[in-house]
Q: What sequence folds into this?
């Protein structure tokens, strides 16, 4: 599975340019107000912020004739990996329920654009989209894009997933739009609901996902946690070391090997870490212990298996390191977590 982070905002803006061209509209009318040229948008190295993505979508929709489907067209160009670390936390989840948890827990991270929540009502599971913080003109577009990506994800994970079991909720009454959306998606659309939502049978929540990877999932969840505390979400050198460990499944990395992979000298890497108030040894230990906690509580792996996966020669060494870092043994942490979730 490719873990290279891609930019959803950049892909969206590039596809909007192509959409405008297909509709016979000059993209410059949309881009110039934001000091963008067509060449800049199509450049491989261009960076697009969330706010710029919102502004371009809003400008484009003000130029396009009103109809359903623009969000679906853009969604067809996107993959879950375009959501970066957040998307990877979702796709490496063990079950749909875990994926939903990752989706909703980190919806306020710098990666996310819309806010997503989840709840169960009777036999239905609802994925609720909150776009109130975005311009009203783009609400339908955002819901369409979200619907397309979510349904595609569910069908890729389970080819037997029936579209007849999925419903779309709209928080307004617009019969023409509802009919168009139903025809485009093949899904039942229900109007006058409290919110934008995707509804599906909650029996699907415990469906196992085929690309689950406990170590990778734990890492990506931990990185999403960090990004919630880091407003710009910019990877630092400590994070680059964590990524090296996960991508290479090397939990006893050598500093020379990591420095070489980053095209740095050992001295430069040590200096950069010192500037971040880190040390190589500390980053390695922190990464292993954060993963250990996630594997213990989220993946519920046996302690011996966790020790082996994290490259401890003996379970006793892992137990000592875990207690020194967290202040409790793995068994005590698991027991305490179990009581809190009952």
A:
């Amino acid at each position: 599975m490719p873990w290279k982070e891609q930019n959803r905002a950049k892909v969206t803006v590039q596809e909007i340019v192509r959409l405008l061209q297909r509709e016979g509209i000059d993209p410059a009318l949309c881009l110039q107000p934001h000091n963008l040229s067509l060449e800049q948008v199509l450049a491989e190295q261009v960076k697009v912020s969330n706010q710029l993505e919102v502004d371009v979508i809003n400008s484009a929709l003000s130029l396009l004739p009103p109809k359903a489907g623009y969000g679906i067209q853009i969604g067809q160009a996107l993959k879950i990996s375009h959501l970066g670390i957040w998307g990877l936390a979702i796709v490496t989840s063990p079950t749909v329920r875990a994926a939903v948890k990752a989706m909703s827990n980190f919806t306020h991270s710098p990666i996310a654009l819309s806010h997503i929540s989840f709840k169960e009502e009777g036999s239905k599971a609802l994925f609720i989209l909150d776009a109130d913080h975005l311009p009203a003109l783009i609400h339908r577009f955002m819901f369409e894009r979200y619907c397309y990506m979510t349904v595609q994800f569910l069908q890729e994970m389970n080819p037997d997933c029936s579209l007849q079991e999925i419903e779309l909720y709209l928080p307004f009454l617009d019969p023409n739009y509802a009919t168009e959306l139903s025809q485009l998606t093949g899904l039942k659309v229900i109007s006058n609901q409290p919110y934008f939502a995707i509804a599906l049978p909650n029996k699907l929540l415990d469906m196992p996902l085929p690309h689950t990877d406990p170590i990778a999932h734990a890492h990506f969840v931990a990185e999403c946690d960090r990004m919630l505390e880091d407003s710009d979400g910019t990877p630092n050198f400590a994070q680059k070391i964590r990524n090296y460990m996960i991508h290479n499944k090397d939990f006893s990395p050598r500093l020379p090997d990591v420095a070489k992979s980053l095209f740095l000298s050992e001295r430069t890497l040590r200096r950069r870490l010192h500037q971040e108030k880190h040390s190589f040894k500390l980053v390695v230990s922190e990464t292993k212990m954060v993963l250990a906690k996630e594997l213990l509580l989220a993946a519920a792996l046996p302690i011996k298996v966790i020790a082996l996966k994290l490259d401890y020669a003996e379970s006793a060494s892992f137990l000592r390191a875990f207690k020194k870092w967290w202040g409790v043994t793995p068994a005590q942490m698991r027991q305490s977590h179990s009581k809190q979730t009952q």
Summary: The mean pLDDT is 82. The two ends are 35 Å apart (CA to CA).
